[in-house]
Fold:
Amino acid sequence: MLTTIRTLFLGERARAEEAVRRTYSVELIEQKIREAEGGLQAAKATLASLIQRQRSETRQLAALEARAADLTVRARAALAAGNDTLAGEAAEAIAEMENESALRAETVAQLDARILRLRQSVETTNRRIIDLKQGAVAARAVRQERAIQTRIRTTLSGRSPMDEADALIAEVLTRDEPQEEAEILREIDRGLTKEDLTGRMAAEGFGKPLKVTAVEILTRLRADD
Structure:
């Protein structure tokens, strides 16, 4: 039972995470791009440090080789002059310099290789980030287009603002007039109390009319003439 509940819980959490990823996919893309840019900046800083060290080692190697060359010239001069002691000291110094030069040359070569690899990595990462930024722009445009299409589909499938306006207009135009309704109610009341019976009988010619008519006025005028 517990295993089943745990499985259902994990499945629900996975679906929720997937829904969040779909909803905020563009924001997640932009966040990953920012993280990649942070890594790129760190790689650039490391590359700059390696280049600086490589240049320093190269300068020291060049200075060491220049000193060794100068000391070699002087040692030859000492040998030519018969000063074997100075020539021997110079030879020892030249040997140390050459050994140090070999180590520094190896260091420079290693730095060159590391710089080359890191520079290639930086360039590749930079190109990928540019592509990702373009992809993010496209993804945002697609999401906006989908949102518009969703609103359009909702409008077409449901009651749009225009449909609601038409319905309200029709409701206003077909709404009963309160005054007319009150008059009809009075007519109904008169019918129920028989107040209109005399009027209806007079209109049918039974008894004296309740109102003077235009016919009576014309008859009176002709009689006066």
User: Anything to note?
Assistant: The radius of gyration is 53 Å. The mean pLDDT is 77.
